[in-house]
Amino acid sequence: MKPNHSSLLVQPSRSSLLVWMLLCLVLASALALLIFQPALAQKRLNVAEAKDHVGETAAARPLSGPVAAPVPQATPLTQDSTQKKAIKVWVNTNSGIYHCPGSRWYGKTKQGKYMSECEALKAGYRAAYYRPCGSDCK
Fold it and tell me: In sequence order, what are the beta bridge partners of 112?
């Protein structure tokens, strides 16, 4: 007679199988969270950054800390008896992009300088997200 090997195998109960499946599901979820959390955090940063450049101003958001310096405002200049609106922008000299007052990166990039929007355009810089600040440049 042949020996019956099926009697040597232990048949797990249905409840222990459910516990193992639940444990595997929890472990897989935790592992997925650890893997994808940095990517999701970076995505949120990019969306928030985009909103800042599209038109939200710093005045509309609550401040998270002390303000380093007041934001220079638009200063009207007279030139040949015509009013010309000049806006001081922050030019990121590393990227060649200028930022308008009130935007997130205004005065905060590592390399940059202040100049009027007209000067920035003449020097070949472009507006962040191709949205000019509104100077009367010709």
Answer: 92
Place of tokens 């005065």: 107
Q: Are strands 126-127 and 88-92 parallel, antiparallel or unpaired?
A: unpaired
Tell me the pTM: 0.41
Q: How far apart are CA 118 and CA 32, in angstroms?
A: 49
Q: Which residues contact 126 (CB under 8 A, 6 or more apart)?
A: 96, 97, 98
Distance CA 42, CA 62 (A): 22
Measured between alpha carbons, how far is residue 50 from residues 54, 100, 105, 129 in Å?
A: 6, 14, 11, 8
Count the Cβ atoms, other than its own, within 10 Å of residue 128.
25
pLDDT digit string (tens) for 1-20? 666 666 666 777 888 888 88
Secondary structure letter of residue 6 according to DSSP: G
Closest of 79, 64, 69 to residue 107, by C-alpha: 69
